[in-house]
């Protein structure tokens, strides 16, 4: 039964119950969860074109997913909506049996099918550019990227499912960023690998995306690809495999800060490992070099090349790819400009023991149990309690959330419960009045039946 009465914004019209920003798998699964809870008055926007949401059909450069083929996610435990069901219906049981890891592009198409099957409409090509308070609502400024048209919508809640860089940016060391743009890229950038044919390429970082980009450069015909790992040998343990059990996924967020920090510092501090296939894809090329114990101590560009110094010696390259992950920096996000300096971080809320310190992770947001932003200084921006975050930035507070397929069936329902709890709580007086006024008889007892 529908249970929400639309609110009226100050300038008339009707407010949304929820605005979902981002139509990647996290935004889609969140919308699905809300629909199942009969919260239907929502809008999903994404600045990307249909099909270009998230990495799958854009900058992801691995042929297959890295997760085991039996992990499910956006289906929220509905068997007919799982990836295997879609794959078997489309390509047959034998094809599914032969799958070792799920094809990356197939995953991208599957996500589009899920959203069409659920009946979710997405407003593509629309970016959120600002969020501000408007009475007891939030006002969100939306920009149509094709026409330049701007409009304001009001919502009781906003979910930011804006991806890995959604609370900051894809990060490169400043000296790499300072190189001419013709000489460097981040692994998440749109790179024209054809132009690297015959080139000498240096990849910084030894995580999965660094290897994927090295593999793409090798396959495009690069003359040589050097991958530089800070560690002597790349990290090959995948802590995300360890944590894939219901207890951890469901309840890490219920633990005390000490435990949440300890677990997630260990997991995110290790960074993600990669499957054997990722390494083999590079190692099969004789012109691939894996250089361990080689952090870059300096890097600069000359007319002719990029010069790189490391404890393992000096190197030159024509082009540099930085596979160095993301950095939290709320101030970089226009939609957060009215509150960025008042969003509490883990560093604000918790001081770990000396041997557990980690400055980068301390910059992750510290979230409420309903995934809402928390104020650094209480009372300055109280309205941020209605902005809920579902992305890798939620990870320090709850363990894998938007950052990982395996967590979705467990964690999306928790996010949805957090949102519906807030909506119900703030309507409690209206519900009480409604109960008192409720007078629909369930049975008819004739007057003469009562002595
Ligand atoms: C290369 C790569 C490979 C990965 N492989 C795996 C894997 O094999 N297994 C696994 O479990 N996980 C994997 N992950 C991790 C995770 O599953 C993905 O990052 C996944 O895309 C997260 O989904 P999402 O919906 O949270 O974010 P995204 O898919 O990134 O979607 C976010 C969306 O928000 C939109 N957006 C951002 N800002 C705005 C704005 N201001 N206004 C409007 N729209 C906006 C973007 O356009 C984007 O479409 C991988 C990640 C990467 C980067």
Task: Describe the structure concisely.
The protein is α/β, with parallel strands linked by helices and 451 residues long. The chain is built from 15 helices and 17 strands. Strands 1, 2, 3, 4, 5, 6 and 17 form a seven-stranded mixed sheet that branches. Strands 8-15-9-10-11 form a five-stranded parallel sheet, with helices on one face. A three-stranded antiparallel sheet has the order 12-13-14, with no helix packed on it.
What characteristics describe this protein?
single chain, 451 residues, FAD/NAD(P)-binding domain, 7-stranded mixed β-sheet, 29% helix, globular
Overview of this structure, please?
- This protein folds into 2 domains: 16-168 and 326-432, FAD/NAD(P)-binding domain (3-Layer(bba) Sandwich), CATH 3.50.50; 172-236 and 273-322, FAD/NAD(P)-binding domain (3-Layer(bba) Sandwich).
- The protein is built from 15 helices and 17 strands.
- It has helices spanning 25-36, 83-91, 93-98, 104-118, 174-177, 208-219, 239-242, 246-251, 257-270, 276-283, 346-349, 359-362, 395-398, 408-426, 428-437; strands at residues 16-21, 42-46, 122-124, 126-134, 137-144, 150-160, 168-170, 184-186, 200-204, 224-228, 288-291, 298-301, 306-310, 313-317, 319-322, 326-328, 387-389.
- The longest helix has 19 residues, at 408-426.
- The protein starts with 15 loop residues before the first strand and ends in a 14-residue tail after the last helix.
- The mean pLDDT is 96.
- It binds flavin-adenine dinucleotide.
- Residues 21-27, 45-48, 53-55, 60, 65-67, 127-128, 161-164, 166, 209, 335, 391, 402-406 line the site of flavin-adenine dinucleotide (FAD).
- Flavin-adenine dinucleotide (FAD) is lined by residues 21-27, 45-48, 53-55, 60, 65-67, 127-128, 161-164, 166, 209, 335, 391, 402-406.
């Amino acid at each position: 039964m529908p249970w929400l009465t639309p609110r009226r914004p100050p300038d008339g019209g009707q407010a949304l119950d929820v605005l979902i920003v981002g139509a990647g798998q996290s935004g889609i699964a969140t919308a699905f969860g809300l629909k199942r809870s009969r919260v239907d008055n929502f809008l999903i926007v994404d600045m990307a074109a249909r099909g270009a949401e998230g990495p799958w059909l854009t900058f992801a450069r691995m042929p297959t997913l890295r997760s085991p083929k039996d992990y499910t996610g956006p289906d929220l435990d509905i068997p007919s909506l799982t990836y295997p069901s879609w794959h078997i219906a489309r390509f047959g049981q034998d094809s599914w049996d032969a799958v070792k890891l799920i094809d990356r592009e197939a995953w991208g198409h599957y996500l589009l099918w899920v959203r069409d099957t659920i009946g979710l409409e997405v407003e593509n090509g629309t970016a959120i550019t600002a969020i501000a308070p408007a009475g007891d609502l939030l006002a969100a400024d939306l920009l149509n990227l094709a026409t330049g048209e701007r409009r304001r919508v009001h919502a009781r809640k906003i979910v930011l499912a804006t991806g890995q860089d959604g609370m900051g940016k894809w990060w490169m060391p400043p000296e790499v960023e300072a190189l001419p743009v013709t000489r460097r890229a981040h692994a998440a950038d749109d790179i024209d690998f054809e132009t690297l044919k015959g080139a000498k390429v240096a990849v910084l970082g030894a995580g999965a995306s660094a290897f994927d980009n090295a593999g793409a450069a090798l396959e495009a015909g690069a003359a040589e690809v050097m991958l530089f790992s800070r560690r002597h040998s790349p990290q090959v343990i995948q802590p995300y495999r360890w944590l894939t059990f219901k207890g951890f996924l469901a309840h890490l967020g219920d633990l005390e800060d000490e435990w949440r920090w300890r677990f997630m510092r260990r997991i995110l501090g290790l960074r993600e490992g990669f499957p054997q296939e990722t390494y083999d894809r590079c190692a099969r090329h004789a012109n691939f070099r894996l250089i361990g114990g080689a952090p870059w101590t300096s890097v600069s560009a000359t007319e002719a090349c990029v010069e790189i110094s490391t404890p393992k010696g000096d190197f030159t390259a024509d082009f540099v790819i930085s596979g160095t992950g993301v950095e939290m920096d709320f101030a970089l996000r226009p939609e957060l400009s009215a509150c960025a300096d008042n969003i509490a971080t883990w560093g604000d809320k918790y001081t770990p023991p000396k041997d557990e310190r980690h400055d980068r992770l301390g910059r992750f947001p510290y979230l409420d149990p309903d995934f809402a932003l928390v104020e650094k200084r209480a009372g300055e921006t109280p309205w941020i309690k209605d902005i809920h975050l579902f992305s890798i930035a939620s990870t320090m507070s709850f363990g894998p959330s938007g950052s990982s397929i395996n967590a979705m069936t467990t964690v999306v329902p928790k996010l949805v419960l957090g949102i519906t709890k807030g909506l119900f709580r703030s309507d409690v007086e209206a519900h009480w009045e409604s109960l008192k006024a409720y007078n629909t008889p369930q049975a008819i007892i004739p007057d003469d039946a009562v002595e």
